[in-house]
Amino acid sequence: MTRSSTNSECLSSRRSSSSLSATLQSSTTTDSKDIITQNELSIQKLLLELQDDLKKTKDQYNISRDAWLAIQQQKSSNENTTSQSSKQNMNQALAHVHNEMDMYRTALAKIAQVRKLQIEIVNASKNPNDTNRSHTTRRGLADFLSHMAYSLKIWYGNEQNGTNRCITIIYFLFKNNAPPPLCGAMPAASNHICHVGDRIAGFVESDDGDENWILAEISNVYPNRTKYDIVDIDAEPGKGRYYNISKRHIIPLPQWRACPLTCPQALFAPRTIVLALYPQTSCFYKGIVESIPRVGNDCYSIIFEDSSYNSGFSPEFDVPQMFVVAHKDLKK
Fold first, then answer.
1. Do residues 269 and 291 make contact, with C-beta atoms less than 8 angstroms apart?
2. How many CA atoms within 13 Å lie on the side-chain side of 293?
3. Which residues pair with 195 in a beta bridge?
4. How much is the pTM?
5. How high is the pLDDT of residue 175?
6. Which PROSITE patterns does its entry note (predicted)?
7. Has residue 79 been placed in a domain?
8. Is residue 92 part of a domain?
9. What burial class does residue 269 get, using C-beta atoms within 10 Å of its C-beta: 0-12 exposed, 13-18 middle, 19+ buried?
10. What is the pLDDT of residue 329?
C-alpha cells in the first residue's frame, strides 16, 4: 500500500471519527433539550394542580376546624361527652382530619415531584464537558453543597406537642409513624451498610498528616462490608481518594430532613455538641447547636470551635440538616 493511500485512509478515519463525535454531541444536546422541555411542561401542569389542591385543602381545613370547635364547645358546656352523639362527632372529626391529611400528602408529593423535575432540568443543562471538573471556587462549592441539601427529602412524622389545633387527633394518626434511621439527627441502624454513591463524613489523614472529617462519597464497598473506599467531594480529578477506610471512621449523612413541626425528636437539641460542615469548606468540625430549624427548609445555627477567634468560638453559622451529624471523637 502506498504512503498516499495510507494517508487518505487515515484522513477518512479522522473525518469519520469527528463526524461521529459531532453526531453524538448533537444527539446529547437534543436529548437534553427534550428533557428540559418535557419537564417544564410537567412542572406547569403540577403547579396548576397545586393551585386547585390549595383551594380544596383550605376548604377541608375549615371543615376540620369547625368540627373540632364543635367538640370543644360541647365539652365546655358540660354536656355528656360519653353520649352516642359525642362519639359520632368525634368519629366525624377524625374522618375530616384523615381527609385533610390525605390532601396534604398529595400536595407534598406533587411539590416533591416539582423539585425532582427542577433538579433534572439543572442536570440536563450542565455542559457534559464540565462533569469531571472540580469545584474551583469556594462559591462553586457552596452552590454545589446547597443544591445537595435542597434536594434532600423531608420526613413528616408524629406531632407530640405544641398549640396547634387537633393535636390529639393528629398524634393519633401518626403515632406509629416514627422517624426512621438517618432522618435528621436519628443515627444509622447498627447493621447499616453504605452503598456506592452514598454521601458520608469520613475521618481521614491527609498527605501532610492532618486528620479531619471530610465530606466524601462511597466509591467502593469491600466484600466484608466493613471497609470502604471513599473520595473527597471537593477533590481535583484523580486526587482525594482514600482506600480501605474502616466503618468506624465513617458517619452516614442524613437521608431525610426532619420536619420540625411533626417530628422534633429527630432534631439535635440546642447546646448539643455535633460535627457540622464549616461554611465554604468540605470539612466537618466540632460545634455547638445554638438554635434548631423551625420549618423543614430552615438550617441549624451552629457555633464552631475556632482558635482564630479571640473567644475560641466562631460566630453563628447556618448549616443545613444534611451536614450536621452526631459528634464522634476518634483518636489516632
1. no
2. 27
3. none
4. 0.64
5. 46
6. SGF29_C
7. yes
8. yes
9. exposed
10. 86
Mean pLDDT (the chain, rounded): 81
Q: How many residues in the chain?
A: 332
Range of the domain at 68: 25-127+134-174
HSE of 31 in the Cβ direction (CA atoms, 13 Å)? 12
> pLDDT confidence of 234, banded at 50, 70, 90?
confident
Q: How many separate domains does the chain show?
A: 1
Among 237, 246, 234, smallest CA distance to 281 is for 234
pLDDT over 60 at 63, yes or no: yes
Residue with cell 375549615: 62
Which pLDDT score, from 0 to 100, does residue 319 have? 97
Helix (H, G, I), strand (E, B) or coil at 203: strand
Q: Has residue 60 been placed in a domain?
A: yes
Q: In a 3-state reduction of DSSP, which class is residue 63?
A: helix
Q: Which three cell numbers stand for residue 41?
A: 411542561
Give the cell for residue 103.
390532601
332 pLDDT band, cuts 50/70/90, is: low
Handedness of CA 239, 222, 214, 200 (dihedral sign): positive
Three-state DSSP state, 285? strand
Q: In this structure, is residue 149 part of a structural domain? A: yes
